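dumping this here before i forget
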Amino acid sequence: MLGQQFYHETMRKVVVSFGTIFNNINIVRKNNSGAIIQKMKVPLAYGPKQKFLTRLNNDPSLKNKVAVTLPRIGFEISNLAYDPVRKLNRVQKFKKTKTSDSNKLDVQYMPVPYNLDFTLYVMAKNSDDALQIVEQILPYFQPDYTITINDMADMGIKRDVPIILSSVSYEDNYQGNFEERRAIIYTLSFTAKFYLYGPVTSDKVIKTVQVDQYTDSEINAPTREQRYTVTPNPASADADDDFGFNETSSFFEDSKNFDPVSGTDK
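structure:
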């Protein structure tokens, strides 16, 4: 089973979509009279909090012109876990007409539910800058915010992915000597509920369905009473056509002469 190469970029799409939510946050700074004197877009990057704090603190003598620009938003993946609550029937399938051959279908089993946890860091030097950023985020999560992603492009599946805000914490390392830089940090924890898909396989389109009905369960000489056959109309229809069905029923008086192997009378 394992060893068949496939990659649908599902987790990558979730990570990119999550970051896109926060990539257009702006803050303003005002003077004492309330006039706007500065407006700036908050930078966003993928990476752990420690990475930005190291860059912030690697110049204790304050000789370098820029250590790291604040305010700043950073995020990272913190956990990946299976979600049994959203488990689907594993034997059901998605089906789609194959682009290269209309007589075949692309088939894929139901996806597997997973939860992807994110940690978002809001870092600022001024308390007002941090509050502006957090206040532009929190009202949208009540406690979830739903995004739509092109979940499975090969099968034409789009899915709504809820992103749930689970917790918010705050820290301010204002204590210390004057050579230490101040960093106000808000930490927000999120959970994205998404699905992982298996490989896509090919299957043929069913053109005829035949059902034989019997009156008993004899093995050597079954008593066939009726045959029910369903075929598409027209018979040349493929999976993309909006076709009807022809239905025929056949009754057999001498069912003892029926050969169950070949499906014909002896």
